[in-house]
């Protein structure tokens, strides 16, 4: 299912987990005043806007995202050194080779269908010595979210509707080999252990819906989604504590140099 205005708008209110993950990545990436930065999968653009503050008036930041709904929200933040366009990680052909100092990919790589191509494109548009920064869920760590999704989607009648383009969380070994094959000369990967907290099951599912552009339900048709959501809610309810739900997550945080 395509993204909607409602999901895109909702994400801007609940993306503090992704925002903080982006700040962690930025601490390692060394973005400086005057740099040219490409934010791939920029969503509604709030982190992209923060990047534009970091590079200042002598730098430039471009954000791209396939969701027109998210780019429409981001465009409200555009300034002379900050622009946004609809686009995908796998096709950066509107950007010249060796034109950016930094490519920033936060909480996005698992949604990219052709990850090897996306990393080759990132390497192509980076100047020699330029850096890609990637932060996202680790395939070496199974979160409660993925366990619940897999469990509910394997039940009848949902299993009749397989997900068309499921997220792919890379294991560290897989990520290392993709980076090495994409043309980067140096890489550094650390694990960022975080906790996603939500006040209750509904708040957790809302966060998952808006973060995934509605893909929490895989290929399930629209009319069956409320029933699937109710079944997911039952599973999340089992994890509620006195102060809400706390889901442990592990993110792989990569800085690779061309
Ligand atoms: C969880 S959001 C992250 C947004 C933003 N980077 C942040 O940290 O808040 C994931 C984003 O990836 C985008 N996305 C999905 N497939 C993509 C692709 N092939 N290329 C680039 N972005 C993609 C989605 O539209 C969505 O905005």
From TrEMBL:
Pfam family for this entry, one:
Methyltransf_11
Looking at the record, the residues that make up the Methyltransferase type domain are 38-132
Keyword field contains Transferase: yes
Where are the coiled-coil regions? none
**Protein's GO biological process:** methylation
InterPro entries tied to this protein:
Diverse_substrate_MTase, Methyltransf_11, SAM-dependent_MTases_sf
Question: Which CDD domains would you find in this protein's record?
Answer: AdoMet_MTases
GO molecular function list? S-adenosylmethionine-dependent methyltransferase activity
Recorded superkingdom: Eukaryota
Provide this UniProt record's keywords sorted from A to Z: Methyltransferase, Transferase
Q: Which PANTHER family match?
A: METHYLTRANSF_11 DOMAIN-CONTAINING PROTEIN, METHYLTRANSFERASE TYPE 11 DOMAIN-CONTAINING PROTEIN
Question: What family does this belong to?
Answer: Belongs to the methyltransferase superfamily.
Provide the protein name.
Methyltransferase type 11 domain-containing protein
Native organism is Neoarthrinium moseri
């Amino acid at each position: 299912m395509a993204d909607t205005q409602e999901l895109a708008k909702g994400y801007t209110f609940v993306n503090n987990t992704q925002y903080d993950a982006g700040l962690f990545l930025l601490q390692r990436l060394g973005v400086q005043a005057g740099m040219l930065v490409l934010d791939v999968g920029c969503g509604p653009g709030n982190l992209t806007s923060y990047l534009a503050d970091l590079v200042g008036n002598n730098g430039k930041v471009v954000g791209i995202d396939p969701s027109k709904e998210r780019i429409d929200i981001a465009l409200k933040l555009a300034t002379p050194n900050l622009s946004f366009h609809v686009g995908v990680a796998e096709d950066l052909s509107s950007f010249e080779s060796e034109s950016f100092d930094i490519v920033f990919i936060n909480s996005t790589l698992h949604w990219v269908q052709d990850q090897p191509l996306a990393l080759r494109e990132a390497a192509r548009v980076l100047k020699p010595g330029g850096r890609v920064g990637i932060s996202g869920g680790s395939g070496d760590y199974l979160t409660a979210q993925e366990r619940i999704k897999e469990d509910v989607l394997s039940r009848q009648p949902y299993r009749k509707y397989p997900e068309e383009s499921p997220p792919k969380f890379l294991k560290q070994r897989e990520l290392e080999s993709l980076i090495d094959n994409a043309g980067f000369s140096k890489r550094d990967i650390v694990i960022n252990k975080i906790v996603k907290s939500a006040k209750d099951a509904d708040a957790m599912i809302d966060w998952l819906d808006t973060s995934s552009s509605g893909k929490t339900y895989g290929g399930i048709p629209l009319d069956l989604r409320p029933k699937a959501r109710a079944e997911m809610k039952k599973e999340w309810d089992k994890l509620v504590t006195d102060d809400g739900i706390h889901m442990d997550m592990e993110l792989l945080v990569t800085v690779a140099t061309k």
